[in-house]
TrEMBL record:
Protein name: Glutamate 5-kinase
PANTHER family listed in its UniProt record: GLUTAMATE 5-KINASE, ISOPENTENYL PHOSPHATE KINASE
Signal peptide start-end: none
Keyword match Amino-acid biosynthesis: yes
A single MF term (Gene Ontology): ATP binding
Family the entry assigns: Belongs to the glutamate 5-kinase family.
Enzyme class: transferase
EC number: 2.7.2.11
Domain of life of the source: Bacteria
Amino acid sequence: MSAKKKIVVKIGSSLLANSNNLTLRYAFISGLLSDLAQLQKEGHNIILTSSGSVALGLNMVGKRPEDAGVLDKQAAAACGQPLLMNAYRQVASEYDLDVAQMLVTVEDMEERRRFLNIKNTMLRLFENDIMPIINENDSIATRELRVGDNDRLSAKVAQMVEADELIILTSVEGLYDRDPSDPDAKFIHEIEDVSEHLETTTGTSALGSGGMLTKMHAANMAQNAGVETIIAEGIIERPVSSVLNKERRFTRCLVRGETASPLKVWLSNRLQVSGTLVVSNEIAENVAKKKSGISRMDIISLQGDFSKGDVLHVYNEKGKEVARGLTNFSSEEIMLLARHLEMPVENVIGYKTKSDIVGAENILVLEENHLQLEAPEHDQKIVIPA
């Protein structure tokens, strides 16, 4: 492995914390950081996406993973994050490795300006040979506003920095065609179409919030961003370089087709749905053929409380998601515009701007390799009068 790479490494709570007493596994951390320090010395830029803060803080709040509620986990994250980072800093110093902490929320990753600010910070850390350690800010996240798992967060980070490799270390060697406990289970070395394997990837670990299903979702996000994903067992000695050098087996999720522009990739990889638009089947077909944007006359209904610049998910009348795009208006403005079709846009909202709700240049048409999201159940669905 001679070429210099940008590598995102994701590790879960089950690798970092002992499942019985919820204490740090220092041997694993030492082996991991020793390996990453050597890779950095060879010229590679490394980002570590780390879980573990909740698991490590549960003892302090007197809870076990199976009986901890949302507030318990938020408090545990506040207790566990300093323990986790202190361990990383102490062990990293033994290998002359400088590390920095970055805590993010789903809103940080979904809002374009914050997303770019995070990217710029990481690139500056690279320039100074500092390895970013990223985790979701569980202390302030809610059930509705969670990245949900660090697998998908790691894929967003890989997309952000245009990484060469996303390496997800887990408790198994990789993906099997069925439950690994089944004696007839076959190991899958290489995957081209992630969607073909979603039905076989259920279940989560005792400590983590994800399982193999979320790893497949992450792999799909990375594929669409032009990033190869490797799923491998988190061994103690050289856990990352042994994979990069193909010294042990793992599952490789290949990149498919040409990669879209960074903006279109960002549009395609969503962690939550800000709002939805339903348009007629005819309009949906025009959008899918990249012939038009979406005007106020095209909208049948809308859902969600969103702002200008949010990403909207566009569905046809059959409930199929056909595209995603940046809205030029808030949900309140769209309702006003749709109910006053006879009036010029500037007269309705009080300022002059583009007339399309979503411009054609800011629309990503979903292809077969994109995992579609079902329209969420909002408290209110607004039907636009014809």
